[in-house]
Amino acid sequence: MVKTAGDIKVIFFDLGHTLIFFEGDLNEALAEGTRAMLETLHARGYALDAAALAPLFLHRLQEYYFRRDQSLIETPTTTLLREFLRTYGYPEPAPADLTEALTAFYAPTEARWQPEAEAQPTLEALHQHGYRMGLISNAGDAADVHRLVDKARLRPYLEHIIISAEVGWRKPHPAIFTHALHGFGVRASQAVMVGDLLWADVWGAQRVGMRGIWLTRHAGSTVPTTLPEPVQPDAALERLSELPILLEHWQKNSPPS
Predict the structure, then answer these.
(1) What percent of the chain has pLDDT over 70?
(2) Please, which residues bridge with residue 193 across strands?
(3) pTM reported for the whole predicted model
(4) What is the pLDDT of residues 51-69, one digit of tens each?
(5) How far apart are CA 228 and CA 120, in angstroms?
(6) Which residues 6+ apart lie within 8 Å of 201 measured at CB?
(7) What are the structural domain ranges in the chain?
(8) C-alpha span between 87 and 66 (Å, rounded)
(9) Which uninterrupted H or E stretch holds 42?
(10) May I ask the CATH class of domain 10-19+116-253?
(11) For residue 215, which of 142, 144, 132, 119 has the smallest C-alpha distance?
(12) Do 194 and 59 meet the contact criterion of CB atoms below 8 Å apart?
């Protein structure tokens, strides 16, 4: 097994726009998914008018997205749907109904997420070099993330999959990064985070002492104005395939331990 770069043992990846990318219109996919979700519930005995209620659910969804980005508290989408159904006279929806409805809701977006061609080869190269790897994903539904991981055939490389819907905190909150580090049993200095968002992925990782690598190919560069200082990634890469080369460079130029 090849010695890893410096003292780096673990590489964490973001999922969306890092290992997979989105094709199409997100708002269109969400509208399609909302209609499918409500039609699924109707078929399971809920007296819901999909055409009338879809705009109302989408409005709540946008409010939900705004709140979680402000607070960094992740409320699972199943809670949002349960509260929505309570409003329309269904205070205790069956868990199986919620599962089927949310599977229908996420199907249109899942169909539009496509694996990055370089993801599997890059993760295989890193695996061959002895790195341990994990995923840290901001998402309201864990099952959705797991289906996307399997669609991209990435599961064999990911030792731990950390999802904000299960942890309760979203990147860049320190809690989700420390949770991930504890799962691997490594120090922050022994891990790097690779992602497309300077704020969530790079700054969040750096706050707890990890290195942050900004993947710019599908990058979202918007950074909140409330950050105390400009975000400076430890490295910026356009393509995933550059990552093994970067780590090799860090290895050769790291001071002796």
Answers:
(1) 92
(2) 12, 212
(3) 0.92
(4) 999 999 999 999 999 999 9
(5) 36
(6) 14, 18, 171, 172, 193, 194, 195, 212, 214
(7) 10-19+116-253, 26-112
(8) 21
(9) helix 26-43
(10) alpha beta
(11) 119
(12) no
